[in-house]
Every structure is written in C-alpha cells, then in structure tokens.
Amino acid sequence: MKKILILLLLLCAAANLQAESRYVTDQFKVTLRSGESSSHKIIRMLPSGYQLELISSNPDNGYSKVKTRDGTTGFILTRQLMSIPSARDRLVAAEAKLAELQEAPELLSAKLSKLQDAYKSLEGEHKRLQREKAALDDELQAIKRTAANAVRISNERNELRKQVATLTREAEELKQANRELGNDSAQRWFLIGGGVVVGGIILGLILPSLRVRKRKSSWGSL
Questions:
Q1: What pLDDT shows up at residue 17?
Q2: Where are the domains of the chain?
C-alpha cells in the first residue's frame, strides 16, 4: 500500500514538472484570437474547462498567449483563464477518483500478487545468474592455470631446444675431432710404412756389399 501511495505522489510530482497549464473559465465558450485585441481574427471557440498551455501573459492589454492540445497558438483574455480546472471538471474527476478508490482494494491485491510473483521470479533469476557467475569464475581460473602451464611448457621447450642445439654442436665437434684423429693416425702409419720400405731398400742395398766383403776377406786368408 505504501509503495502505491509513493507511486501516486511521484506521478503527481511528474505532472507538476510539465509545462504550466491554464483552463478556460466557467463560461459556455470563449474566443481564441490571432492577436492581442478584440479586433483580431477569431481562430476558434474554446469550451469551458478546455486545457491550454500558457506561453506568456501581457498585463498591459490583459491578453495571454496560449497553445491548444493540437498545437494551435493564439491569444485569449487573461481573466478568462484559471489556474485550476473548472468546478464541473473537478467534480467529474473527484467522482472518477472515488470510484477508483472504491475498487482499489481488489486491484491492489491483484497488483500485490503480481509484484510478489515478479519478485520471486527475479530472485530465482538472480540466483541462477550467481551460479552462472561462479561457474564462469571457475572456468576463468582454469583458463588462467592452463595459460600459466602453457607458458611454462613453452619455456621448457625452448630450454630443451637450446640444450639439443648445444648437444648437436658438441657432437659435431666430437665428430670433427675424430676425423682429425683418424687423419693423424693414417699419416703416422703412412710414415711408418714409408720408413719400413725405405729401410728395406737400404738394407737391400747394404746386405749384398757386406756379403761381397766377407767373401773377399775369406779369400784373402787363403
């Protein structure tokens, strides 16, 4: 009930914030003219209680500039305007308000029931959104952990690549050293073989001369 009363007060306040209104006095009809004198053309006749928007007032000639609900602008005698609706219109509005208030309890009960249902629905939706948020938070944490692991794995892979490159370079260096050692060994054996051949040739040349000398010496002793 308090919420509805507050809503009515807000509606009244909003109505007061709109453009200032004036109402045609309690006469049968008044004239809306094109200018600020009785000699100007009559634009239309306005019935009693008709609502107008007040634009400006001229206290010197007693006319006010107004605008009708359909946007027509004209001039009317200021004394033919009232700040409040006519008594007849106020009576009709009061009777309508009374009828509305007489029906209000049942309407308020129905509105209250709808509001309670809407509140329960919103509460359920809020809980569902909270569950979804918790699930999304968990998923986000999992993604962060996965991303951290991916970075760590990438760093480890880079380290392994560096180690493989280092080992490959060392293996190539060892192969090159083995090839160099093999070449040195072959050269040594080649030199040894050459020396043996040369020695054999020298011995082949020396031994015959030694035999001839031995024979000569043996003959000389005879």
A1: 43
A2: 20-85
Q: Which CATH architecture does the domain made up of 20-85 adopt?
A: Roll (2.30)
Cα of 101 vs its chain's centroid, Å:
49
- C-alpha 15/C-alpha 18 separation (Å) is 6
Which neighbouring-strand residues pair with 81?
Answer: 24
User: Could you tell me which residue, 101 or 149, shows the higher pLDDT?
Assistant: 149
The token duo for 119 is 């509140």
pLDDT at residue 210 in the model: 62
Cα separation of 20 and 56, whole Å?
10
Q: Collapse the DSSP code of 33 into the 3-class scheme (helix H, G, I; strand E, B; otherwise coil) and give the result.
A: strand
Check residue 221 and give its pLDDT.
Answer: 52
| Model pTM score | 0.34
Q: Is 71 left (phi over 0), alpha (psi -120 to 50) or beta?
A: left
Q: How far is 66 from 43, CA to CA, in rounded Å? A: 12
Provide the residue type at 107 as one letter. Answer: L
Q: Which phi and psi angles does 59 have, rounded to 5°?
A: -65, -20
